[in-house]
Amino acid sequence: MSSELFVLFLLLWFRVESARATNGNETLPGCQPKCGNVIIPYPFGIGAKCSIDSWANINCNTTFDPPKPFIGDYEVVQLSQTEVRIKNFVAVSCYNQSGNLTDQVFTSMSLVGTPYTFSSTKNIVTVLGCDTMVLTRGSNTLNYSSGCISICDTKENVIDGTCSGIGCCETSIPKGLQEFYALVGTIYYHTKVWSFDSCGYAFLGEQNMYSFKASDFTNSSHLTDIPLVLNFAVGNQTCKQAKQNSTAFACKDNSYCYDSVDHTGYLCSCNEGYEGNPYLKQGCQDVNECNNNPCKGICTNTQGGYSCSCPDDSYGDGTKEGTGCTKRNKKIPVIQLTLAGIVNEGKTEQVHAVAELAKRCLNFKGEERPSMKEVAAELEGLRGFEKHASVQKVNEESRTRESESVDLYAIPSGVYSVDSSSGQYSLEKKMMRSMNAPR
Ligand SMILES: *[C@@H]1O[C@H](CO)[C@@H](O)[C@H](O)[C@H]1NC(C)=O
Ligand SMILES: *[C@@H]1O[C@H](CO)[C@@H](O)[C@H](O)[C@H]1NC(C)=O
Ligand SMILES: *[C@@H]1O[C@H](CO)[C@@H](O)[C@H](O)[C@H]1NC(C)=O
Ligand SMILES: *[C@@H]1O[C@H](CO)[C@@H](O)[C@H](O)[C@H]1NC(C)=O
Ligand SMILES: *[C@@H]1O[C@H](CO)[C@@H](O)[C@H](O)[C@H]1NC(C)=O
Ligand SMILES: *[C@@H]1O[C@H](CO)[C@@H](O)[C@H](O)[C@H]1NC(C)=O
Ligand SMILES: *[C@@H]1O[C@H](CO)[C@@H](O)[C@H](O)[C@H]1NC(C)=O
Ligand SMILES: *[C@@H]1O[C@H](CO)[C@@H](O)[C@H](O)[C@H]1NC(C)=O
């Protein structure tokens, strides 16, 4: 097979491979893959037959256009293999100029009885307002209460983008929380700041997704766009317990099990070298690592991995970290100069003469290259060298070395392995560097 044909073959093969690769978005066969704009991957599904359990059953409400997915009362924004993002609920308290409460919404969310928890690492409670204090509470196995106070006198004091207690404050939630409650209160009933801030707000939502702006005091509509991250688990057992019943075990081919961060159960993930949906039979498919060649030479994809090799006309292990691939040249043998000893003081001209000779040895065209005998004779002519070195001619066809001893000279020690394309340059370079280096 000619090399062009071979490359073409590889390209076509890669294309077929990548088309088969999966992205973890699959549903059970015959199930609706999307609700509106939201992708519904198994273990989630629309309807009892399409989901792993009732907690993962998505209610796709088609009275909305586009349809909206819900889990219980919570609108789903995104489903992934590790997390669920839902729409948050903003708690609000608003006052009129004389300090009377005109509007109040408090937040009360419960995930008790489900494998969901509020992610304590990804979510934070954000409070907005210039006369606002918020009390947050949670319970299930743990009872917690917390809060923060945000105060400011004038609009000018408020710095957009920084949430540090002036117009905006933040407080975190504990790990494993399943119930959350927030109530927005006030100290002076907004009477001192009413001209620019008549309301206080609080919401639990994804960290770093919100950037504070004073203009949000009067226009809070987009606060609900910050999603709330929920962790989940597929079973309420640990991996160790779950593995004991293989029919009920949720982790399928080429996947492994891990306990959920909040210790509510276990989750599955594809093994290294595989990607796709670990909850489906044959959901985890081999990754074709060769698609962006990790090798220096030829990449061969294998189940769960890959291997590197070199084309026929070169040798090495084919890897980037290892020996890579070095081209064998059938016509021009690689010449290795093994040089030993140290340059005598004031012999720079001789070194240059040797370098010049070496350069000719590396000449592309065979005819212009001196024979080993000529080299020997020429070196003989360069007197004043006491130390020894040898020139080795490496026969690449058989990869054996026939050494020819040559009377040589003294220049910095080291072995310079060069090939016909780059050797000349690197040889000179290395010599110069060694010569200039202090001893
Ligand atoms: C699901 O598909 C979308 C679009 O095809 C892609 O952006 C997303 O990364 C996929 N999700 C996973 C988990 O592979
Ligand atoms: C869909 O949403 C509408 C409006 O919120 C609601 O009245 C209706 O009961 C929902 N339908 C289902 C099947 O949940
Ligand atoms: C504020 O609300 C109270 C109670 O509803 C009302 O009596 C009062 O007139 C209102 N003040 C203003 C300035 O609107
Ligand atoms: C609310 O308004 C009433 C009059 O309608 C007033 O007596 C009362 O003090 C006001 N409350 C606050 C907290 O300002
Ligand atoms: C949490 O609070 C509830 C009611 O206030 C109480 O019954 C329960 O014992 C508390 N749990 C813990 C762990 O303190
Ligand atoms: C409120 O903010 C949103 C987005 O920041 C913007 O699209 C909308 O026009 C604003 N509404 C008002 C009344 O300013
Ligand atoms: C675990 O889940 C099973 C089935 O979903 C349920 O019957 C059982 O009560 C759950 N156990 C606990 C401790 O929640
Ligand atoms: C294993 O799980 C299946 C399906 O949930 C159940 O029917 C079966 O009784 C379980 N077996 C044992 C030994 O617990």
TrEMBL record:
This is Wall-associated receptor kinase. PANTHER family: OSJNBA0016N04.9 PROTEIN. The keyword Disulfide bond applies. Residues 1-21 form the signal peptide. The keyword Disulfide bond applies. One of its GO terms (molecular function) is polysaccharide binding. Pfam families: GUB_WAK_bind. It is a single-pass membrane protein. It comes from the Eukaryota. Residues 286-320 form the EGF-like domain. GO terms for cellular component: membrane. It is found in: Membrane. It comes from Thalictrum thalictroides. Its main location: membrane. Keywords: Disulfide bond, EGF-like domain, Kinase, Receptor, Repeat, Signal, Transferase. InterPro entries: EGF (IPR000742), EGF-like_Ca-bd_dom (IPR001881), EGF-type_Asp/Asn_hydroxyl_site (IPR000152), EGF_Ca-bd_CS (IPR018097), Growth_fac_rcpt_cys_sf (IPR009030), WAK_GUB (IPR025287). Gene3D superfamilies: Laminin, Transferase(Phosphotransferase) domain 1.
